Protein backbone atom coordinates (compact mmCIF):
# COMPACT_ATOMS: atom_id res chain seq x y z
CA UNK A 1 0.00 0.00 0.00
CA UNK A 2 2.75 2.47 0.92
CA UNK A 3 5.66 1.55 -1.35
CA UNK A 4 7.60 4.76 -0.70
CA UNK A 5 7.45 6.76 2.53
CA UNK A 6 8.96 10.24 2.80
CA UNK A 7 10.02 11.36 6.28
CA UNK A 8 11.05 15.04 6.43
CA UNK A 9 13.26 15.56 9.47
CA UNK A 10 14.53 18.44 11.54
CA UNK A 11 15.88 18.72 15.07
CA UNK A 12 12.47 18.96 16.73
CA UNK A 13 11.02 16.74 19.42
CA UNK A 14 8.05 16.08 17.13
CA UNK A 15 10.34 14.57 14.50
CA UNK A 16 11.86 12.22 17.06
CA UNK A 17 8.41 11.13 18.21
CA UNK A 18 7.25 10.55 14.62
CA UNK A 19 10.21 8.20 14.03
CA UNK A 20 8.42 5.41 15.93
CA UNK A 21 5.40 5.69 13.63
CA UNK A 22 7.68 5.71 10.58
CA UNK A 23 9.37 2.54 11.82
CA UNK A 24 6.02 0.79 12.28
CA UNK A 25 4.62 1.82 8.89
CA UNK A 26 7.80 0.98 6.96
CA UNK A 27 8.12 -2.43 8.60
CA UNK A 28 4.44 -3.28 8.17
CA UNK A 29 4.34 -2.41 4.46
CA UNK A 30 7.97 -3.16 3.53
CA UNK A 31 8.26 0.41 2.28
CA UNK A 32 11.19 2.25 0.81
CA UNK A 33 12.12 5.00 3.29
CA UNK A 34 13.44 8.36 2.16
CA UNK A 35 14.70 10.79 4.80
CA UNK A 36 14.66 14.46 3.81
CA UNK A 37 16.14 17.52 5.44
CA UNK A 38 15.31 20.91 3.97
CA UNK A 39 17.57 23.85 4.66
CA UNK A 40 15.91 27.19 4.14
CA UNK A 41 18.03 29.71 2.30
CA UNK A 42 18.68 32.53 4.76
CA UNK A 43 17.82 36.04 3.67
CA UNK A 44 20.92 37.93 2.49
CA UNK A 45 20.90 40.17 5.58
CA UNK A 46 20.47 37.31 8.10
CA UNK A 47 23.19 36.13 10.43
CA UNK A 48 24.20 32.48 10.36
CA UNK A 49 22.75 31.92 13.85
CA UNK A 50 20.32 29.25 12.62
CA UNK A 51 21.96 25.86 13.25
CA UNK A 52 19.96 24.21 10.43
CA UNK A 53 21.84 26.36 7.90
CA UNK A 54 25.11 24.57 8.59
CA UNK A 55 25.74 21.76 6.08
CA UNK A 56 27.65 19.86 8.76
CA UNK A 57 24.70 19.97 11.18
CA UNK A 58 22.28 18.81 8.49
CA UNK A 59 24.61 16.01 7.37
CA UNK A 60 24.97 14.82 10.97
CA UNK A 61 21.19 14.98 11.51
CA UNK A 62 20.56 12.83 8.42
CA UNK A 63 23.35 10.43 9.37
CA UNK A 64 21.94 10.01 12.90
CA UNK A 65 18.44 9.39 11.55
CA UNK A 66 19.74 6.86 9.06
CA UNK A 67 21.61 5.08 11.88
CA UNK A 68 18.47 5.04 14.03
CA UNK A 69 16.47 3.30 11.31
CA UNK A 70 19.37 1.02 10.40
CA UNK A 71 19.38 -0.16 14.03
CA UNK A 72 15.74 -1.16 13.49
CA UNK A 73 16.67 -3.16 10.39
CA UNK A 74 15.36 -0.50 7.99
CA UNK A 75 17.36 0.70 5.01
CA UNK A 76 16.85 4.36 4.18
CA UNK A 77 17.94 6.86 1.59
CA UNK A 78 18.86 10.42 2.53
CA UNK A 79 18.22 13.63 0.65
CA UNK A 80 19.26 17.14 1.54
CA UNK A 81 17.60 20.01 -0.27
CA UNK A 82 17.59 23.76 -0.02
CA UNK A 83 14.45 25.85 -0.34
CA UNK A 84 11.13 26.62 1.32
CA UNK A 85 10.39 23.56 3.48
CA UNK A 86 6.73 22.90 2.62
CA UNK A 87 7.19 23.38 -1.11
CA UNK A 88 10.40 21.37 -1.15
CA UNK A 89 8.85 18.49 0.82
CA UNK A 90 5.96 18.30 -1.65
CA UNK A 91 8.27 18.59 -4.67
CA UNK A 92 10.45 15.76 -3.37
CA UNK A 93 7.36 13.63 -2.62
CA UNK A 94 6.33 14.09 -6.24
CA UNK A 95 9.86 13.41 -7.58
CA UNK A 96 10.31 10.14 -5.69
CA UNK A 97 6.73 8.95 -6.17
CA UNK A 98 6.00 8.93 -2.44
CA UNK A 99 2.83 7.16 -1.41
CA UNK A 100 2.89 8.71 2.08
CA UNK A 101 4.55 11.58 3.93
CA UNK A 102 4.92 11.13 7.68
CA UNK A 103 5.79 14.16 9.78
CA UNK A 104 5.42 15.61 13.26
CA UNK A 105 2.59 18.01 13.94
CA UNK A 106 4.93 20.93 14.52
CA UNK A 107 8.60 20.86 13.77
CA UNK A 108 10.92 23.81 13.71
CA UNK A 109 8.83 25.35 10.93
CA UNK A 110 6.16 27.05 13.01
CA UNK A 111 6.02 30.49 11.49
CA UNK A 112 5.47 33.85 13.13
CA UNK A 113 1.92 33.77 11.78
CA UNK A 114 1.19 30.68 13.89
CA UNK A 115 -0.08 27.18 13.32
CA UNK A 116 -2.32 28.09 10.38
CA UNK A 117 0.77 28.95 8.38
CA UNK A 118 3.03 26.14 9.64
CA UNK A 119 5.07 23.89 7.39
CA UNK A 120 2.80 20.99 8.39
CA UNK A 121 -0.36 22.82 7.34
CA UNK A 122 1.19 23.85 4.03
CA UNK A 123 2.33 20.28 3.31
CA UNK A 124 -1.17 18.97 4.03
CA UNK A 125 -2.61 21.48 1.55
CA UNK A 126 0.00 20.99 -1.19
CA UNK A 127 0.95 17.32 -0.96
CA UNK A 128 0.62 15.03 -3.99
CA UNK A 129 -0.01 12.07 -1.64
CA UNK A 130 -1.53 11.32 1.79
CA UNK A 131 0.13 12.94 4.80
CA UNK A 132 0.22 11.25 8.20
CA UNK A 133 0.69 13.78 10.99
CA UNK A 134 2.01 12.45 14.29
CA UNK A 135 0.86 14.56 17.27
Please describe the topology of this protein.
Blueprint (H helix, E strand, L loop, with lengths): L3 E5 L4 H17 L2 E8 L15 H17 L4 E7 L2 H12 L3 E5 L14 H8 L4 E4 L1
Parallel strand pairs: 1-2, 1-4, 2-3, 4-5
Helix pairs in contact: 3-4
Structural class: alpha/beta
Task: Sketch the topology as an H/E string, one letter per element.
Answer: EHEHEHEHE
Over the alpha carbons, how many angstroms does the gyration radius reach? 14 Å
Q: For the terminal residues, how far apart are their CA atoms?
A: 23 Å
**Tell me, what's the shape?**
globular
Q: How many helical stretches?
A: 4
Largest sheet, order of strands side by side?
Answer: 3-2-1-4-5
Written description of the protein model:
- It is a single chain.
- The protein has helices spanning 13-29, 55-71, 85-96, 119-126, and strands at 4-8, 32-39, 76-82, 100-104, 131-134.
- The protein is an alpha/beta fold and 135 residues long.
- A five-stranded parallel beta sheet has the order 3-2-1-4-5, with helices on both faces.
- Helix 3 runs parallel beside helix 4.
- The two termini are 23 Å apart.
Give a nutshell description of this structure.
It contains four helices and five strands; from the N terminus they run βαβαβαβαβ. The chain is an alpha/beta fold and 135 residues long. Mean pLDDT is 87; it is low at 109-113.
Amino acid sequence: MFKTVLFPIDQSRETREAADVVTNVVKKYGSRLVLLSVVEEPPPDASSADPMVSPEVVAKLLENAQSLFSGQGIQSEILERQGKPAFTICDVADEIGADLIIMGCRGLGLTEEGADDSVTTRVINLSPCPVLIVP
